[in-house]
Amino acid sequence: xxxxxxxxxxxxxxxxxxxxxxxxxxxxxxxxxxxxxxxxxxxxxxxxxxxxxxxxxxxxxxxxxxxxxxxxxxxxxxxxxxxxxxxxxxxxxxxxxxxxxxxxxxxxxxxxxxxxxxxxxxxxxxxxxxxxxxxxxxxxxxxxxxxxxxxxxxxxxxxxxxxxxxxxxxxxxxxxxxxxxxxxxxxxxxxxxxxxxxxxxxxxxxxxxxxxxxxxxxxxxxxxxxxxxxxxxxxxxxxxxxxxxxxxxxxxxxxxxxxxxxxxxxxxxxxxxxxxxxxxxxxxxxxxxxxxxxxxxxxxxxxxxxxxxxxxxxxxxxxxxxxxxxxxxxxxxxxxxxxxxxxxxxxxxxxxxxxxxxxxxxxxxxxxxxxxxxxxxxxxxxxxxxxxxxxxxxxxxxxxx
Length: 401
Fold this sequence. Notes:
The protein is of the alpha/beta class. It folds into 2 domains: about 5-180 and about 365-395, Rossmann fold (3-Layer(aba) Sandwich); about 185-365, Rossmann fold. The chain has helices spanning about 15-20, 25-30, 45-50, 65-85, 95-105, 125-140, 150-160, 185-200, 220-235, 275-280, 295-300, 315-320, 335-345, 345-365, 365-385, 390-395, and strands at about 5-10, 35-40, 55-60, 90, 110-115, 145-150, 170, 210, 240-245, 265-270, 285, 305-310, 325-330. A 7-stranded parallel β-sheet has the order 3-2-1-4-5-6-7, sandwiched between helices. Helix 1 (about 15-20) packs parallel to helix 3, helix 9 (about 220-235) packs across helix 13 and helix 11 packs across helix 14 (about 345-365). The longest helix is centred in the last third of the chain and has 19 residues, at about 345-365.
């Protein structure tokens, strides 16, 4: 009896597996892959194991550069991979990608995939940027394949010389995990959205601008607050709801904290279910300075909500300018204010772009569409190297990949 191909994911922190691989792990397991996730320890890693039905190994991996801790992490991940002897290693996030690719190369894993979720160094300067650049080149060199989350990310990576073009690919239209388009359907969450509105004290009928993400500098929170001040001059009743404070231990900059408590601004900590907040919104603001392929614009799209975003790496793949949203230059608070104001004052435009956004999300970014792309890619790479393929019996329990 042939064995199942073994696929190991290496990520830095468990929230990546819990959020960005949600559902995909179980899908691949059901289709005949043995799955193990290696990540720093935490309750979310235990949730992944229970929900997805996969094995997990907790190995501390620091998010920031810490030479001694990084060396210990590398040694432990290498030892784990030597014991597991996987057919494929998929390593992602900055530190997890570097450690995972180095360890996989050391034990000569047959297929090594560096999943490029974003380019952290885009918003760094000086020595830290140089160090991160070296790390990217090392991870890329150790990989057989670099799967980029978006076309603009792939182009940036290749143009900046981190890896050759023939090593870097985008699967389909991009995105690492897609979204559950029905989960974010506006109609499903309208009662809960009304409860959120009441709880936050937002007047009935007041237009709502939403932001979901980490309220930090490289997500464009400063220019969003500037833009909101400008929007209120034209739409005085407008409200801003910021969801995601405290994500991954992030602290709000002291200079921004008072502005996040200004009139009309409502700050909500990270929530397990953001869908009611999208149902509350008239428009999503997404002025991030860099992304791989952001989920928030896709989730908003599934709710029929257009996005005003920055024309940044990754964001310009998630939002079609003039069709599913409006794009402005990175850091352009005035342009952001114009786009947001336009949607609030032009309901027909808002509805048309929201409808187009949902149609695109359903066609190109539903979970099963993206998961099948990954399943097909893994199977093709296994076949090319003469390695075991997903078992026939496992595939018969679901759609074969």
